């Protein structure tokens, strides 16, 4: 089906389901935001970590996961962590390592970023990404891009080649295209899984359920002791056109300060923005003297406090790594000596 035909069929479906939704007084903007249980306390995940990545919440049930799907996650996490590790191992910078790891996950349709981005209410893909260099607190971000193959590269471009930190919409696509970033048509992001999720969300008149976040993130510490963080996402299934979440907002979904911590989050973007979640980890370390594990837990508790859910990954410059979460998360890390650990099953 062409993308125009797909969108037409979506328009028809929207009309059909809008009627019962109106009768019930349910709006797509309000129905996905039920109060969630508070975050469960979690300890430090690992020491001696040089880079970690996540691919959202909703870890898989081992018994119900086809072996090919498990193998695909394993391969993706191995590839992403090793892409980042190669940069670090050759003396490269944390900011380049996180970008390399994110590109791998953006190119993989398993995650809600790049190729596997979710659809908005009009059946289009609008992608957000950000990258932050903890050595000088520099940031680059794009929001609502529609034709960039790897939004993280466009975010990096904003950081390196513009006087701004965040460029949105058409201007961001144009800026990327003018600077030689690979562009794609919307069909590139079309996957049957994401399309089905959209139809399902329309049927339930809901935004994506809290169990389905698949944003990708990466954090790293390099041999110079610098930290960096990056996050990329398609946002929420069935989101309003033009909606921007936490992922491209420094301090909300992404944060890095080489003196303290690198953070990337996934979950209800609105709650992460309200809680200023990623920056909150650094605040807790800087002003309350907490270690990274307790500081990150305090930040995710704050997300829960405003009714959000999700997870974040956080890494300090000593390689202490933690993953506080509300529910479960899919993530992986690589140690200084190159050992990779993956965690994407819940049981
Ligand atoms: N945090 C992302 C957003 O709200 C969604 C996600 O993590 O899957 O855009």
Helix-strand layout with pairing:
Elements: H1 3-24, E1 44-46, E2 49-57, H2 67-89, H3 94-106, E3 127-133, E4 138-145, H4 151-161, E5 166-168, H5 169-178, H6 192-203, E6 216-221, E7 227-233, E8 254-257, E9 261-267, H7 269-275, H8 277-288, H9 292-305, E10 310-316, E11 321-322, E12 329-335, E13 340-343
Parallel strand pairs: 4-5
Antiparallel strand pairs: 1-11, 2-6, 2-12, 3-4, 3-7, 6-7, 8-9, 9-10, 10-11, 12-13
Helix pairs in contact: 2-3, 3-4, 4-5, 7-9, 8-9
The chain binds aspartic acid (ASP).
Residues 56, 112, 213-215, 233, 235-236, 245-247, 253, 266-267, 269, 310 line the site of aspartic acid.
Strand line-up across the major sheet: 5-4-3-7-6-2-12-13
Low-confidence stretches: 11-37
When the domains are counted, the total is 1
Distance between the termini: 38 Å
Question: Based on the structure given, which CATH architecture is correct?
Answer: 4-Layer Sandwich
Largest sheet geometry: 8 strands, mixed
| Average residue pLDDT | 89
- The sequence of SSEs as H and E is HEEHHEEHEHHEEEEHHHEEEE
Task: Label the structural class.
Answer: alpha+beta
- Give me the oligomer status: single chain
Helix content: 25-40%
CA-based gyration radius: 19 Å
Q: Number of DSSP helices?
A: 9
Taken as a percent bin, the fraction of beta residues is 15-25%
Per the principal axes of the C-alpha atoms, what is the gross shape? globular
CATH topology: Glutamine Phosphoribosylpyrophosphate, subunit 1, domain 1
Question: Briefly, what CATH class?
Answer: Alpha Beta
Spell out which ligands are present.
aspartic acid
Number of strands: 13
CATH superfamily placement: (Glycosyl)asparaginase
């Amino acid at each position: 089906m062409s993308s125009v035909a797909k969108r037409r069929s979506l328009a028809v479906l929207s009309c059909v389901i809008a009627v019962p939704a109106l009768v019930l007084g349910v709006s797509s903007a309000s129905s996905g935001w039920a109060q969630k249980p508070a975050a469960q306390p979690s300890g430090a995940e690992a020491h001696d970590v040089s880079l970690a990545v996540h691919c959202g919440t909703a870890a898989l049930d081992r018994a119900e996961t086809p072996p090919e799907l498990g193998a695909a996650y394993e391969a993706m996490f191995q590839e992403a962590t090793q892409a980042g590790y190669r940069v670090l191992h050759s003396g490269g910078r944390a900011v380049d390592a996180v970008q390399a790891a994110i590109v791998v996950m953006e190119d993989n349709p398993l995650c809600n970023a790049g190729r596997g981005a979710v659809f908005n209410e009009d059946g289009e893909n609008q992608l957000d990404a950000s990258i932050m260099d903890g050595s000088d607190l520099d940031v680059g971000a794009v929001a609502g891009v529609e034709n960039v193959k790897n939004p993280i590269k466009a975010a990096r471009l904003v950081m390196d080649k513009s006087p701004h930190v965040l460029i949105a919409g058409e201007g961001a696509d144009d800026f990327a295209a003018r600077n030689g970033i690979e562009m794609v048509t919307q069909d590139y992001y079309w996957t049957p899984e994401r399309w089905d999720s959209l139809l399902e969300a329309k049927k339930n008149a809901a935004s994506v359920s809290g169990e389905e976040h698949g944003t990708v993130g990466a954090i790293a510490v390099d041999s110079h002791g610098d930290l960096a963080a990056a996050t990329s996402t398609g946002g929420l299934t069935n989101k309003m056109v033009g909606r921007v979440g936490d992922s491209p907002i420094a301090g909300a979904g992404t944060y890095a300060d080489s003196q303290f911590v690198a953070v990337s989050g996934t979950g209800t973007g609105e709650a992460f923005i309200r809680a200023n979640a990623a920056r909150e980890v650094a605040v807790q370390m800087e002003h309350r003297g907490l270690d990274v594990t307790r500081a990150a837990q305090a930040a995710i508790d704050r997300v829960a406090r405003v009714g959000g859910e999700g997870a974040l990954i956080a890494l300090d410059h000593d390689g202490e790594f933690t993953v506080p979460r509300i529910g479960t998360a899919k993530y992986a890390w690589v140690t200084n000596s190159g050992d990779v650990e993956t965690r994407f099953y819940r049981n």
